[in-house]
Amino acid sequence: MALHTQFIAALAKRPASTVVNGLRTGSGSDPDAGEFAAQHEQYLRALEDSGVSVMVLPADPGYPDSVFVEDTALCFADFAVVLRPGAPTRAGETASVAEALSAWYATIDHLEAGHVDGGDVLWTGREVLIGLSQRTDPVGAQALSDVLAAHGLTPRIVETPPGVLHFKSDSTSLDESTILATTRLDDSGVFDGYTVLAVPLGEEAAANAISINGRVLLPAGYPNTQAMLLDAGYDVVTVDNSQPQLIDGGLSCMSLRIPGN
Ligand code: CIR
After folding, report:
1. How far apart are CA 183 and CA 61, in angstroms?
2. pLDDT score at 28
């Protein structure tokens, strides 16, 4: 199993009641705070059942989107990077996450310029793809690229399809050679050299999954993607994510997974 899909721990944050005011690209209905919290609990159980110990930070009502901790930092085996989220209302989410990460990391770098959301950064095990998006700008992408290269990783700055919030809204690294992705992202050629499992049309939201300790956590409600992954030999566990999806949240967005080393 590739290192980048093996994890010992995860960091999450409880959704605040203000999650109903979370940012969204469309004009969809508000999530229900109670149902969101219930689905979040199930999500935490699914992570624990996958063999990680989960640290859960208290809710932060001042930041409606703060449940989506993935956007605030990156976690590698030997170091973490605290990011600068691109939405102004999310800039203050990083402090509590940075403090919590010191439980695992002696080395924590900080992005010094521009903006990057963690949802735009895909570590494939071979390289780190940094997707330019509405949230991740060229200055931030280059600054992150420099940090990662200094740690011996191989960064590559790429494009996110128009209208897609984050690069990882449309992609997941299943293992070092295989990517789960939407056709609209795969068609860009960004994954040339990888085996791509394309989610069937109409199931685009299933492209955001989590490959963790030999299983794939997949949002519930995407039977064709589930069947494709099962056929390909993956162990699939579904998690109801309908509430986070109302505000553009995928499964990966709600935790930072800490690799073992
Ligand atoms: C936002 O727009 O920032 C949140 N409502 C959703 C963030 C989802 N995060 C992610 O894809 N990594």
Report:
1. 37
2. 82
